[in-house]
Amino acid sequence: MAEAAASGWPEPVVRVQALSESGAATIPERYVRPEAERPSSAAATVDTDGGVNIPVVDLSSPGSAATARAVAEACREWGFFQAVNHGVPQALLRRARGVWRGFFHQPMEVKQRYANSPATYEGYGSRLGVDKGARLDWGDYYFLHVRPPHLLSYDKWPYLPPDLRETTEEYSREVKGLCERLMAAMTTGLGVGEGRLQAAFGGEEGAGVCVRVNYYPRCPQPELTLGLSSHSDPGGMTVLLVDDRVKGLQVRRANAWVTVQPVCDAFIVNVGDQIQVLTNAVYRSVEHRVMVNAADERLSIALFYNPKSDLPVAPLPELVSPERPRLYMPMSFDEYRLYIRRNGPRGKSQVDRLAQINKDDKPAGGSDSPLAVASDLLRPSQPHRHHRKDVTDPDHPSAIHEPRRNTVVDKDPRPPHRLPRRRPRPVVPEPPPRYLRDPLVALFPF
Question: Segment Disordered: which positions (predicted)?
Fold first, then answer.
């Protein structure tokens, strides 16, 4: 437990890869899902061998009206599509898969040098959330910030294999460019002004980019567990490079789970909650999950393209009308992430709850509004006696709530010389921001 306490985790972190390589015939109870959530449950599952699959969109002419229509239709109907002829070199895709597979095949002592903690979640990890005794997913991961520049920390990037850093940087740059082309196509498909979605993200320079490499080792009982629990992505857009040899991603369609059959060297693109909010639910984020495999390991690389974290996100005015009223109130991506961390992963219920709050027409700042929920998370649970006025960190409590000044003495009728002398208050060290103390802080660290 001393090791766990030193790292910030509530209990020792067990690497799923080590469990897989141990030769055990059963998985620990912590990884067994409730019966209704298992891949083997009675919930309908549609395999793509039967002809049902997410749409495939050809991006060879990204600026054409036909491409914009195809992207828009996929975002409206599925929230997912596979992008082919996307302009990212195939050789780079193979190099990216190769270097990260090489990292996960390094000796454990090499990987452990980059073990992450709940303070940042950057680095080598095996769990999301710090709730003691929580049910766990069958997978390890590596999480990195790429943009904005002040979050980029190369000391958290592995140095083995030798070309991993250079390859990951080039890969991130190329896929970021693809995201910008997709944003333009999505905007055209909406019929709004050019660049409107990108501007709502804070422009090309303001958008955030982070990468999560997922490694799903072989599992002796894949019918009992999941590689990644059911969720919709809280960010703007996700571009996923999957293992094109091993299936695993499932997308919810109506009341069934559709197993995606990957197209070789295609990207799987999905709408996140922030684009659902911006488009007033014209484009919808969709629940998805990951299965694991008894025979083969699986690796995927997710790049998350997010709005500038402190920029309010709300439905575009062009997409609001009497026939289609505004579904969501303004909320920054930072606030939304905190809202999710408080409530936990519940499929699509988070963004749908925000729509219901707005439908109830409660005043912004009312106790149940998302802004109030987020503000409560940002507000320290105990009053602080020492506030710095020069704090620029948005997570610092004093950057959000300035204490009220005591005005009672100003109304005291006694002469100034008879006012009671105040004792100086001791300087009390401030606790870490509330989001670092929340038991669900890392459910969605991107």
Answer: 379-438
CATH number, position 123: 2.60.120.330
Helix axes 65-77, 164-190, angle to 10 degrees: 90
Q: Is residue 242 part of a domain?
A: yes
Among 393, 399, 364, residue whose Cα is nearest residue 380:
399
Give per-residue pLDDT as tens, 263-303.
999 999 999 999 999 999 999 999 999 999 999 999 999 99
* Half-sphere exposure (Cβ direction) of 359: Cα atoms closer than 13 Å: 8
* 37-57: b (≥16 Cβ within 10 Å) or e: bbbeeeeeebeeeeeebbeeb
Q: Do 129 and 116 touch, CB atoms closer than 8 A?
A: no
Answer yes or no: is 346 within a domain. Answer: no
pLDDT of residue 411: 47
Say yes or no to pLDDT of 327 above 90: yes
Answer whether 251's CB lies under 8 Å from 58's CB: no
pTM of the model: 0.79
| Position 405 confidence tier, pLDDT thresholds 50, 70, 90 | very low
Q: Cis before residue 158, ω within 30 degrees of 0? A: no
At 83, which amino acid appears?
Answer: A
User: Domain range holding 80?
Assistant: 16-313
**CA-to-CA distance for 228 and 226, rounded, in angstroms?**
5
End-to-end CA distance of the chain: 28
pLDDT at 83: 98
Burial class (CB in 10 A: 0-12, 13-18, 19+), 160: middle
Query: What confidence tier does 421 reach under pLDDT thresholds 50, 70, 90?
Result: low
Report the interhelical angle of 349-359 vs 333-343 (nearest 10°): 110
Residue 72 DSSP symbol: H
Residue 6 lies inside a defined structural domain of this protein: no
Q: What percent of the chain has pLDDT over 90?
A: 62
For residue range 303-314, what is the model confidence (pLDDT) as tens digits?
999 999 999 999
Angle 264-157-244 from CA coordinates, rounded to 5°: 10
Cross-strand pairs, 202? none
What 3-state DSSP class applies to 110?
helix
